[in-house]
Amino acid sequence: MNIGMIGTGNMGSILIEAFIDSMAVPPSRLTITNRTISKAVRVKDRYPDIQVATTATEVAQVADLIFICVKPLEIYPLLQELKPVLSSDKCIVSITSPISVQQLESEVDAQVARIIPSITNRALAGVSLVTLGESCSERTSQFLDTLFNQISTPVHIEDNVTRVASDIVSCGPAFFSYLLRRFINAAVKETQITEEQAVTLASGMIMGMGKLLEKEIFTLQSLQEKVCVKGGVTGEGIKVLEAELGEVFEHLYHSTHEKYYEDIELIGEQFKK
To answer: Hey, which family's this protein in (predicted)?
Structure first.
């Protein structure tokens, strides 16, 4: 299949790079565009065989699978622009959580899917969240699963867990990067360790922990229990976390869901037109 990418910002570029680096998609099968066309040209500078189109419509004309990697409120007008060149043998893939596959299907004569990627996919790792529309053919479904298996572990989800799943998979790397930075900054502030040393040690720790979980040597619970020896130093640290964290993560989910429902309401007004 020919792949189109409308939007070459953070996630659009990550998908392009992951598809190419995993050899899932040859650069020559990719046609890309961006509202600021120079950003798409910069991607082509790295991968000369990529085709750059000047408009989204041109991308949709030549692509079988069309990734829409723009802001949520830009999707409805973009679909109106693309309508004349879409057909039932093409598939629109949205990467944004507030727009459902049902809303996409209500506007276009094409197959649709929603696939929410993660920055971890750039390392050909992590999870991608897949929701297929009823219009999605078996052939397209299989192709999407094969494609995303090259860069991630695709997990099929229903609408009712879209936001929380996205919080964990897509937002999670930013949340835990922030926590790790705070962990490192406190070490530098409170002890004589240098920032460079702390970053090296913390980075190695987090990657090693990931390997333990990936290889199923430990679960999250058993890992904690293995390190947290009764009466030891780790246990004292856990006590601080239990006392200080409180309901911080509950508040986090409340906040992300509140923004999510605000976006859904605004997008819903567009799709009622």
So the answer is: Belongs to the pyrroline-5-carboxylate reductase family.
The answer to whether 11 is annotated as binding is yes
Residue 234 structural domain:
165-252
pLDDT tens for each residue of 75-104: 999 999 999 999 999 999 999 999 999 999
Length of the chain: 273
The residue written with tokens 């333990």 in the block is 212
* Other C-beta atoms lying within 10 Å of the C-beta of residue 45: 9
- Report angle CA 113, 115, 117 to the nearest 5 degrees: 165
Residue 241: band (very low, low, confident or very high) from pLDDT cuts 50, 70, 90? very high
Q: What is the pTM of this model?
A: 0.92
171 shares a domain with 67: no
Is 149 known as a binding-site position? no
Residue 146 labeled ligand binder: no
* 120 labeled binding residue: no
Same domain (yes/no): 141, 230: no
The SS3 assignment for 203 reads helix
Is residue 47 domain-shared with residue 180, that is, in the same domain? no
Does 23 share its domain with 7? yes
For residue 218, is pLDDT > 80? yes
| 139 and 172 share one domain | no
- Please check if 5 is assigned to a binding site: no
Q: Are residues 110 and 211 in the same domain?
A: no
Count of domains forming the chain? 2
DSSP 8-state symbol, 25: S
Annotation-wise, does 6 bind a ligand? Answer: yes
